[in-house]
Design brief:
- The chain has 190 residues and is of the alpha+beta class.
- Helix content is 26%, strand content 23%.
- The chain folds into 2 domains: 2-53 and 142-185, Hypothetical protein yqbg, CATH 1.10.3230; 56-133.
- The protein is built from 4 helices and 8 strands; from the N terminus they run βααβββββββαα.
- The protein is elongated.
């Protein structure tokens, strides 16, 4: 299964003003840099955890229906299934009734009876599911531990910018507190 971002978050889990205050930067001369660090930090946290912090739209692509009828949605957490379609052998799409899918938000899974749905007509990417994922539309909807990880990562990258790795002993490693904050939120992949 592959995931494609359709529309990213409307806001970030941390504002530039909040980051500037955390960094104890008194001027707005570096707001563009701080904003870029916030975006990079959010993306890093999302990649490490397999979770979308702020509401986003994604398209999941599957080759076939899973035998057990459980479709794991990554990134998590699943909010809604917005559309489902299948490709026939001619490459035409056909909409599927989203009511055939039961969302299990707690497990970030869509449950379906695969034998009741038509098989895709093409061998790869024959099934597409559009989903909305994320903790919510506002920064305050994001669990505080993940927001703190973003703060710490912004601060780390702000203080260690320009570090070029010529050997691994000179690169400032990520603080272990970031790893500890992310650990409970990591999506386990088997």
């Amino acid at each position: 299964m592959s995931s494609l971002l359709l529309s990213g978050p409307a806001v970030e889990p941390l504002t530039v003003d909040e980051a500037r205050a955390y960094l104890r930067v008194e001027t707005n001369d570096e707001d563009a840099l701080i904003g870029a660090l916030i975006i990079g930090s959010r993306i890093h946290v999302e990649a490490q955890t397999g979770r979308a912090l702020i509401t986003q739209s994604w398209q999941l692509s599957l080759d076939a229906w899973p035998d057990n009828g459980r479709i794991g949605v990554v990134p998590a957490p699943l909010r809604t299934l917005d559309a489902a379609r299948i490709y026939d052998s001619d490459g035409d799409t056909h909409a599927l009734d989203t009511q055939a899918f039961v969302p299990d938000a707690g497990a970030s899974t869509l449950v379906v009876l695969p034998w009741l749905l038509p098989a895709p007509g093409r061998i790869a990417g024959g099934i597409e599911l559009d989903v909305t994922v994320g903790y919510g539309d506002a920064a305050t909807d994001v669990p505080e531990a993940l927001r703190q990880a973003v703060r710490l990562l912004v601060a780390h990258w702000y203080e260690n910018r320009g570090v070029v790795a010529t050997d691994t002993t000179r690169v400032a490693p990520l603080p272990s507190t970031i790893t500890a904050l992310l650990a409970p939120y990591r999506m386990l992949r088997l």
